[in-house]
């Protein structure tokens, strides 16, 4: 996955209501948007041959998103998790390449 792929993503927005509490978690929209922007920035840095901006794949693995407030907009937790399951390996590949002394172009 490339930084441009992450920047082009649009997740469907869900409103958290009392009835939606039984339909699965809804993550805070602003928090998810911030993390995805950080992912795109990290991938862009790797793609240009630089080290990441500080975000590591392990940071994403351990990150726990806040739930959207009641009657607030957010993103379906399963969709966010699925997306991160695509982003994390891309960041790991770049991290491993840099550890070996390579660049993004070596991939």
Features:
single chain, 107 residues, mainly alpha, 50% helix, 4 helices, DivIVA domain-containing protein
Shape: elongated
Strand order of the largest sheet: 1-3-2
Order of helices and strands: HEEHHEH
Strand content: 5-15%
> Helix fraction?
40-55%
Structural class: mainly alpha
Distance from N terminus to C terminus (CA atoms, Å) equals: 12 Å
Protein name: DivIVA domain-containing protein
InterPro entries: DivIVA_domain
Describe what this molecule looks like in 3D.
It is built from four helices and three strands. By secondary structure, the protein is mostly helical. It has one domain (3-102). A three-stranded antiparallel β-sheet has the order 1-3-2. α2 packs parallel to α4 (77-99). It is elongated and about 50 Å long. The mean pLDDT is 89.
